[in-house]
Amino acid sequence: MLINGQWTDALSGETLDVENPGRKTIVGTVPRGHGEDVDAAVNAASKAFDAWRKVAPRDRGKILLSIATALEQQVEPMALAIATETGNAIRTQARPEAGAAADIFRFFGGLASELKGEQIPLNENMLSYSRREPIGVVGAIIPWNAPVLLAALKIAPALCAGNTMVLKTAEDAPLGVLLLARVAQEFLPDGVLNVLTGLGHECGAAIAEHPQIRKLSFTGSTSVGKSIMRAASDRIAPVSLELGGKSPSIVFPDANEDWVVDGIVTAMRFTRQSQSCTAGSRLFLHEDIFEPFLEKLAGRAAALKMGDPLDEATDMGAIINKKQFDKVCGYIDEGLALPDARLVTGGMPDTEGPLSEGYFSHPTIFADGSNDWRLAREEIFGPVLVAIKWRDEAEVIRMANDSHYGLAAFVWSRDIGQALRTAHQVEAGWVQVNQGIGQLPGQSYGGTKQSGIGREYSLESMLDSFTQKKSVTVNLDIPAPPAP
Ligand code: NAI
Ligand code: MG
C-alpha cells in the first residue's frame, strides 16, 4: 500500500490473494488494510494538504501532465495487470482502459487554470468574489470492473483541485491501481495520494466513517452507496456516488440495420462481460423488427470469441470472481425456468472444456421478456440481455422509465426528431443516440434516481465534486483614517 510516499504492508501483516478469474490461479498478494492503516493514510493526507492546496493550480496541473506522459509509457504493463486480475480481455478492454487512464490525467492536468471563482456585482462599493477551494482529504472507494480508469477518474480531478486523497482499491483488482500509484508517486509530494488495499467492510467502511475525511467519492453497488451516504450524513460530508444501472436500449422500426446490431453489442458491453454500470441491458425492440433484429443480434453475440483474457485474439474474457459468476448463473437459471422466456443464444456456462477452467459466461439473450421480470429489473452485471417487444412510443418510454435506476440510455433511429424526443423523456443521466460508446473526458457523466448523485469526467465535475465555494465580500468604502 502507498502511505505517505512509502510502500508498506498492513499494520496487522495480513494479506489478501488476487486471482486471475480466467484461469482461477493466484497471481498476487496484497496487504489487507484495516482501520489502523486508514488512520495512518488519513494522517498523511491531512499533513500533506496544507502545502498541496497552496501549490499554484497550474503547477499541480503540470504534475498531472507529467503523470499522464509517464502512464502512456506504462500502458503495456498496466494492461497486463488489468487483464490478469480482472479477466477483461487485453485487446478489447484492458489496453484501452490503461490508455484512457493516462488520457484522464492529461485532460484534468490541462484544466488546472480553470479553477476560477466569480466576481459578483452586489454593490458599486463592494467587491464580492468567490474562490474555488479544495475540500480537504477525499476518501475514494472504487470497484473492480474498470479499476485503473476509475482510480484515475477520482485521483486526477481531486488532486488537480488541491485536495489530497486516500483511495481504496477493490479487493479483486488492486494490482493495476498500485502500478498507477507507483507511477504517480514519482511526481507527487509524499502523502498527497495514499492507496490502500483491503476489504470493503474493513478498510472501505473505515474510510467512509473517518472523521477527518471531508468528502467521499464512491463507485460501486447501490447498496454500498447507500451505506456510504449514511456514514457521510453523520458528519455532513459531501458524497459523489456512481452506482448501478439497468439501462434501456430503445430500437425504433427504422433502425433494423447491421450498424445498429453492432451498436447494441457495444452498448451492452458484452466484451467486458457486461460488467459495466452503463450496460444497455434492457433491449426494447419494436414489434415490426423484433424477430429479424434479434436473429442478427444473436449471431453477432455468439460470434464473440470468448477465452483467455491475455490472448490477443480474445474478444470477451471472464467474470471477475466466483461470487459474481454464481450470481450471473443464478439469473440465467431463473430465465431458463421462466415458462414465457425464450433463450435466443447463450445459456449456462460450459462445464467441461477450456471455458470451464475460468469464470466464463456466454453472451446470453432472453426474448419475449417482460419489463417486470427480475431479469429486467435488477442489475445482473453479467452478459445477460433481455429483449422486450414494444408497440408505441409512449409505452416504450413508460417501460424504460419504470426502473429505480437512471444511469444511461440508448436510442436508435434514423428519425432524429423522434430519437431526440425520446432522449428528452428518458430518465437517465446520459442518453446516446445511434451509438453505444464509453464515456469520454469532457462530458458530464453520472446518474439519476438510485444510479447516483454527482457527475464525473468534466470540468464541471471537478468544480462541483472536488471544490467548495467561498464568498469574500469587501467593503470598498471605509471611512478615511482619523487625522494623526
Ligand atoms: P461493491 O459495491 O460491494 O464494491 C465496490 C467497492 O466498495 C469495493 O472497493 C468494495 O471493497 C467496497 N465496499 C464494499 N462494502 C463496503 C462497505 N461496507 N463500506 C465501504 N466500502 C465497501 O460491489 P461488488 O460486491 O464488487 O459487486 C456487487 C454488485 O455491485 C455488482 O453485481 C454490480 O451490480 C454492482 N457494481 C456496480 C459497479 C458500478 O460501476 N456502478 C461496479 C461494481 C459493482
Ligand atoms: Mg481477480
Task: Write up this protein.
It is a single chain. This protein is of the alpha/beta class and 484 residues long. The protein folds into two domains: 2-243 and 447-472, Aldehyde Dehydrogenase, Chain A, domain 1 (3-Layer(aba) Sandwich), CATH 3.40.605; 248-433, 3-Layer(aba) Sandwich (Aldehyde Dehydrogenase, Chain A, domain 2). Helices cover 38% and strands 21% of the residues. It contains 15 helices and 22 strands. The protein has helices at residues 35-54, 57-73, 75-86, 90-109, 147-160, 175-185, 200-209, 222-233, 258-267, 290-302, 322-337, 374-377, 393-401, 416-425, 459-466, and strands spanning 2-3, 6-7, 15-20, 25-31, 119-123, 126-134, 137-141, 164-168, 193-196, 215-219, 239-242, 248-251, 282-286, 342-345, 364-367, 384-390, 405-406, 408-412, 430-433, 448-449, 452-453, 467-475. The strands form six sheets. Strands 14-15-16-13-12-18-19 form a seven-stranded mixed β-sheet, with helices on both faces. A six-stranded mixed β-sheet has the order 9-8-7-10-11-21, sandwiched between helices. Helix 4 (90-109) packs parallel to helix 5 (147-160). The longest helix is centred in the first third of the chain and has 20 residues, at 35-54. The chain is globular and about 95 Å long. It starts with a strand and ends in a 9-residue tail after the last strand. The mean pLDDT is 98. The site of 1,4-dihydronicotinamide adenine dinucleotide has 26 residues, from helix 7 and helix 8.
